[in-house]
Amino acid sequence: MKFVIQRVNHASVTVDGEVIGKIGKGFMVLIGVCQDDTKEVADKMIHKMTGLRIFMDEQGKTNLALKDVGGELLLVSQFTLYANCKKGFRPSFIEAGDPAHAEELYEYIIEECRKRDFTVETGSFGADMKVALENDGPFTIVLDSAAL
Fold this sequence. Notes:
20% of the residues lie in helices and 39% in strands. By secondary structure, the chain is α/β, with parallel strands linked by helices. It has one domain: D-tyrosyl-tRNA(Tyr) deacylase (D-tyrosyl-trna(Tyr) Deacylase, Chain: A, 3-Layer(bba) Sandwich), CATH 3.50.80. Strands 1, 2, 3, 6, 7 and 8 form a 6-stranded mixed sheet that branches. Strands 4-5 form a two-stranded antiparallel sheet. Strand 1 (2-15) and strand 2 (18-23) form a beta hairpin.
């Protein structure tokens, strides 16, 4: 599982010209699922993501977590995080989880984040989405379950 976490001042997702998800200060997270991922892997990733202390405190140090600043989450599925570009110029996506498995884990991640009392907005699984954001920093972290 891969999360690309961007600390944002605001972010939104649009599908067919309609904004379907919008947040203020928080994390815009692209989520990639591979076939071997499980709910246990998702739980580890959620724990790590929501605990990241990457917001500034009064001294300008990155000491505050999402909860500390009342941050929100915009969670967007993105199978292309598993693009394999080793051979040729056309990426292969065979490492990405099949859509049914990926959607199940994506929905699980959304619900688990909501259970932790975060405001959670989402994209639309499998849709052609337009994502807009103002990255704060910029500050971007890539979490890969293979490295946790």
